[in-house]
Specification:
globular, 69% helix, two-stranded antiparallel ribbon
């Protein structure tokens, strides 16, 4: 009994609270007229890294295992080589800092600040809460036609991020849905699992009215992987329930259901009858591949894609994408990336960058799946953490085939990668072994 206040206090003062603060800051409206640049959440992610460094110094302990250091440190090689190979060093420095922040420093800090599974659940529920908030704003935009322009109507859900970052809200919503599915499939108390399932079903609506085909594909594949990893029998039962509820929810959209049906059918037309957005994407992909062929080992350098794009693009590439609505005036948004993370890395960092960065992600997935298999055999009560971590990683690996980093939600990508890295790489913290044994 004498330890109860101490344990309660350590829960309130959990080291992951700075990470929760980053997630909370992503709920704030985006600054009007802001075109790229750092956000409050980015600044808070720097504070997360600083808090981690102070905590490591205070506890005087070895920060990472050898395996974790290798896996998380691999991207540094490709990033550094690409920065050194850049033709304009001034543009490479911001790129080097950004890649280091998103793929190395913040994930490592999140991994080291998480103490146990309860911290993982706290972060997962924080992401769900952010997704519900942004999703509610997005559904309101759809219902009142106050969102971004889509097919001549301002109905595209973009949350608080505006039409210049149309992928930000749907990324947040997808993260929240994947976290909710993982929590619902775990062994938490029934009330928590029911709330997680309710949140997952509700988040289907803003995901749908985002009209993002790539996000739909990535979310379906990630959630399907979670269901299969949780057990085939459960996957069939839960899949049937989710399919039935989704049909009911989607059936209430009225006129919007025709737009959704059209958007869904367009997924099968990207090969033989692509629309202009898909044609632009193909042209950008071809540009990135052409850059890689020109400099296969080191690429054209960090932040080099916009400068080299016109020299490698075909005539099929348009001048930019049209954005308006959600309180913003019409503008032509330039196409400054190939919208494919793998090809962006290949074009700017060459094979060195792609092998180190993608190799790090694949290593996390393999190690995470291996630990998940052991957890299932041992009937580990932390299965929900495993499903959240592996689900988020699968989502990223699929999503990066049609999207890349950029926008206000990018820092949340770093947090999710850190959460996945904790499950795959973390060692038990001896400071809390007694508490774990007591549970």
């Amino acid at each position: 009994m004498s330890h109860a206040p101490t344990l309660a206090a350590t829960r309130v003062l959990t080291p992951v609270m700075p990470v929760v603060a980053v997630i909370v800051l992503l709920a704030l409206p985006d600054a009007p007229g802001r075109e790229g640049g750092a956000t409050l959440a980015d600044a808070a992610s720097g504070a997360v890294v600083l808090c981690c460094a102070v905590r490591l110094w205070y506890h005087r302990r070895r920060p990472l295992s050898r395996t974790a250091a290798v896996v998380l440190g691999m991207p540094v090689v490709g990033i550094a080589v690409a920065a050194a190979a850049a033709e304009v060093p001034g543009t490479a420095v911001p790129g080097f800092s950004r890649y280091l922040q998103i793929f190395v420093l913040v994930p490592a800090a999140v991994l080291l600040l998480i103490r146990d599974r309860r911290d993982v659940r706290l972060l997962a529920w924080s992401v769900v809460g952010l997704a519900v908030w942004q999703g509610a704003v997005g559904v309101h935009q759809y219902a009142t036609e106050s969102g971004a322009s889509y097919m001549g109507r301002e109905i595209r859900a973009v949350g608080t991020y505006g039409p210049d970052d149309i992928m930000a809200m749907v990324t947040v919503v997808a993260f929240g849905l994947v976290c909710a599915v993982g929590l619902a499939l775990g062994s938490a108390p029934v009330r928590q699992r029911v709330w997680a399932l309710v949140c997952a079903l509700l988040l289907v609506v803003p995901l749908a009215v985002s009209f993002s085909r790539g996000a739909w594909i990535a979310t379906v594949l990630a959630c399907t992987a979670q269901l299969v990893l949780a057990g085939l029998r459960r996957a069939v039962r839960v899949g049937a329930v989710v399919a039935a509820v989704t049909v009911i929810l989607m059936g209430g959209f009225g006129v919007g259901s025709a737009l959704l049906e059209q958007r869904l059918s367009s997924i099968g037309q990207v090969a033989h009858a692509p629309d202009q957005s898909v044609a632009d994407r193909y042209a950008l992909w071809a540009s990135a591949l052409d850059m890689w062929r020109e400099r296969p080992l080191m690429g054209v350098g960090l932040k080099g894609f916009p400068e080299h794009r016109d020299g490698h693009a075909s005539l099929a590439l348009s001048s930019g994408s049209d954005t308006e609505g959600a309180g913003a005036a019409y503008r032509k948004q330039p196409l400054l990336s190939p919208h494919n993370m793998y090809l962006l890395v290949l074009g700017e960092q060459g094979l060195t960058g792609l092998l180190t960065l993608a190799g790090s992600w694949l290593a996390l997935l393999v190690l995470g799946l291996r630990r998940l298999a052991r957890a299932r055999r041992a009937r580990d009560p932390g299965l929900d953490c495993a499903l959240v971590a592996c689900g988020l990683l699968v989502w990223h690996l699929v999503s990066f085939a049609y999207a890349d980093i950029g926008g206000p939600s990018t820092v949340l990508t770093a947090v999710c990668l850190g959460l996945s890295a904790w499950w795959a790489l973390a060692r038990p913290d001896p400071a809390f072994s007694q508490e774990a044994a007591a549970r």
